[in-house]
Amino acid sequence: MSAHRNPFSIRWLAAGGAAVIAGIIGVALVLQTGGSACAAPPSTTAKTGKATFYDLAGTSGNCSFEVPADDLYVALGPSQYSEGTSCGAYLDVTGPKGKVRVKVFDSCPECAAGHLDLSRTAFKKIGAEIDGIIPIKYKLVTNPSVPGPISVRIKEGASQYWFAARIDNHANLLSSVKVASGSGSFKSAHRTDFNYWLIDSGAGPGPFKIKITDVYGKTSTVSGIKMNPGSVQKTSVRASSASSSGTAAKVESTTSASKKPTVTAKASPSKPAAAKSSASASASAAVSPSATTAAAAPLLESTTTAEEAEAALAGPAVDLAAAEPRC
User: Fold this and answer.
1) Higher local confidence (pLDDT), 152 or 31
2) Which of 33, 190, 214, 259 has the fewest CB atoms within 10 Å around its CB?
């Protein structure tokens, strides 16, 4: 990834900091035979953890998004990044100085569950930069406000024979993306760990109709998306309105999020860039890249670490109970 961690933060990471209870954002998605999702809604209970900060060396993080205009974003560890399924979600993070809302923008290969690596701008809003590491509480935001309508970016190299698109401003975690070309039928796409939705056999020449469904079952459909690789196509559809639909409204040329995951690796003195691949491979409930007929299962889960066990001895843990299934 094209980001690197600030050396000051590295020193704090090496030191380890105070033991805290690592948090979990739990999402369970069960796919029924008919392809519809029967899900336990993501937990929005506040979790306890710690935060550090880093400076972005390039133009994009592992989620392939452009840098948010407010510079407020976060990188998550492998178990919570969950091979890209967390990309585009928003977290409210509270620290010693206050609260900040950040977009899941990047992965942090060396971060354990509950360790959030914030942009420097976000960190300074809730803590003293000189501290380097601070205790935090954080929670997933449901139906957050987003900067604009849903946008679609067709990846460089895409054609009628290989479809790849990035979806932005979808607000909630996504469970599935389906694509139809012209008057054709919808095909299911699968998500990569760099947050592009792929149909390996292609979806046709377009223009495309794209159906986006979040983990709450809300569907938004955008149409008129052109096979225009490397450009952000803004639509008139806002994710905040349930079961909405609309057309592409504006196209902006951009190359800032075109990197393949092998190029965009977060550098760390203690781990080579290649470490991300092995870390992602061990993420819980990873989605098979060859599955093109099932929705991706967004998981922000983790297993108990030695740090969590030590913290648990110091006092009661926060409530990590997940919501009951809706079906």
Assistant:
1) 152
2) 33
